[in-house]
Amino acid sequence: MPIPDKIAAANKINEFLKGVVANTGLRLKYRITVDPQVADDRDWERPEILVEFAGPDSPLVLERGAELLRAVELLAIEMLRLPGNEHEKISFDCMNHRAMRLEELRMAAGVAADKVRKTGVPYEFAPMSSRERRIVHLALRDQSDLHTESQGEGMRRHLVVYPKNHRPGGSKPAARTIP
To answer: Could you tell me which of 45, 96, 107, 108 has the fewest CB atoms within 10 Å of its CB?
Structure first.
């Protein structure tokens, strides 16, 4: 379900970000785009509102796995009161971090798939956000010899790649690795 009034939502995000930038002293600018153009091959992410940061403090926004970027994005999503299944409608980025992270996740999915095929042992990713788990699920969706599942709760929710014929209670997943 689309955001009912995208312009009003973009204006709310703008007001929020004005305060964040002014009150934190961060040297950042941002651009908000409603209905941004997205490449056809990016079916895993089609935001209705895209916020892009740039400026001298961009590296600070991306430190520790883009923790600040993700936090500001989450606050904006909560401010708009979007239900969990609609969080992908808002996307925040800085210095093309999101595209690089998406490619990193797709490559990690490929490595995990190869390991599962070679060993027959399930591959367990480190905990990640629902958006990132979705990227891995979609990256492996056409692999008929594998299947993926999200497991765990809350901050410990993670994704496991299984051989197609894997039976629960069989071999234990491999140690967690960070993608």
So the answer is: 96
The rounded distance, in Å, linking the Cα atoms of 178 and 99 is 18
Q: Helices H, strands E: what count in the chain?
A: 4, 6
User: How remote is the C-alpha of 36 from its chain's centroid?
Assistant: 17
How many residues appear in the chain?
Answer: 179
Q: Over the stretch 88-140, which tens digit does the pLDDT of each residue have? A: 889 999 999 988 888 899 999 999 999 999 999 999 999 998 888 988 999 99
CA of 39: how far to CAs of 42, 47, 68, 74, in Å?
6, 12, 26, 24
* Helix ranges (DSSP H) in the chain: 6-24, 58-79, 97-119, 130-139
Q: In this structure, how many other beta carbons lie within 10 angstroms of the beta carbon of residue 126?
A: 13
Kind and range of the H or E element at 59? Answer: helix 58-79
